[in-house]
Design brief:
globular, binds N-carbamoyl-L-aspartate, 4-stranded parallel sheet, alpha/beta, 38% helix, 296 residues, 5-stranded parallel sheet, single chain
Length: 296
């Protein structure tokens, strides 16, 4: 696999094969079993031009677990502050020996441009509003390991869907894996096109959902929190009581506690939120290993 910029061109078989590998690494990590350090000596570079905790650190941990040497560009304290262009920064990272480039950026097309400019395998760690493929995969892996399957599940994605790259990735891939989606949020946060079921009334759906996938309102992309948001869409104890006994709550993080989710739900028995974080490491190991396998 020559990097991972988007899941949208991938077949269900290809996605399942990556998830199988993620599953294998997850088992190995959990049981402290050894695995091949297939990236030994490979230089993997994290270039995050937007804030990140989970994604950046789990890529770092995944690369280290596979034996890679990891470089990190921190735009806050790098030549970006002196006006260096994205292209020049990325060519610099290439000249420093980068063999796999992991990039997060506010622009939708940054990963594609990075691949064009550098010729390197590029892994998209979140680009603008467009996609966040390893988040999609780790979510699918978390769902698969919890329910045993993705096929047939009713999943409600709730919140600022229009501005969320996480939602964009889930909307493309989860139906491909056989799940049924409902997109729920205030009118201004719903996508304008697509064939998914749209709704502005969360309560109407609660008793039918297997998964409530909550999103953060993306203030950095110009979204404004509607004044009645918490009342209409906040997931608290009373809404959690309306869910099926087996239903779970997911969120990609970071959480805005008290807005889209309350403390008792985030930290409660239905929450898969930290399980999502944990699955980020084996899933990114699978993506890095598949990418490393195609290096000359
Ligand atoms: C998300 C992102 O940056 O797209 N976070 C993440 O990677 N887990 C979601 C968000 O910031 O709301």
């Amino acid at each position: 696999m020559k990097g991972l910029i988007s899941l949208s061109g991938m077949s269900r078989n290809e996605i399942d094969a990556l998830l199988d590998e993620g599953d294998r690494y997850a088992d190995a990590l959990m049981r402290s079993e050894p695995f091949d350090r297939v990236l030994t000596g490979t230089v993997v570079t994290n270039a995050f031009f937007e804030a990140s905790t989970r994604t950046r650190l789990s890529f770092q941990r995944a690369a280290m677990a596979l034996g890679a040497d990891i470089l990190s560009l921190d735009p806050e304290v790098s030549a970006t502050q002196k006006g260096e262009s994205l292209r020049d920064s990325l060519l610099t990272l290439t000249a420093l020996g980068t063999e796999i480039l992991i990039i997060r950026h506010a622009e939708d097309d940054a990963p594609l441009l990075a691949a064009e400019w550098t010729g390197l395998p590029v892994i998209n760690a979140g680009a603008g509003r467009s996609e966040h493929p390893t988040q999609t995969l780790l979510d699918a892996l978390t769902i698969r390991r919890h329910f045993g399957h993705v096929e047939g599940l009713e999943i409600g994605i709730v919140g600022d869907i229009a501005n969320s790259r996480v939602a964009a990735g889930l909307i493309t891939t989860l139906p491909e894996l056989g799940a049924r989606l409902r997109l729920i949020g205030p009118e201004e946060f719903l996508p304008v096109a697509g064939d998914q079921r749209l709704s502005v009334d969360l309560d109407e759906h609660l008793s039918e959902l297997d998964i409530v996938y909550l999103l953060r309102v993306q203030h950095e992309r110009g979204a404004v929190l509607p004044p009645d948001y918490v009342e209409r869409f906040g997931m608290g104890a009373s809404r959690a009581r309306m869910l099926k006994e087996t239903a779970v709550v997911m969120h990609p993080g970071p959480l805005n506690r008290g807005v889209e989710i309350t403390d008792d739900v985030a930290d409660g028995p239905r929450s898969l939120i930290l399980s999502q974080v944990r699955h980020g490491v084996p899933m990114r190991m699978a993506v890095l290993a598949a990418t490393g396998g195609s290096l000359p």
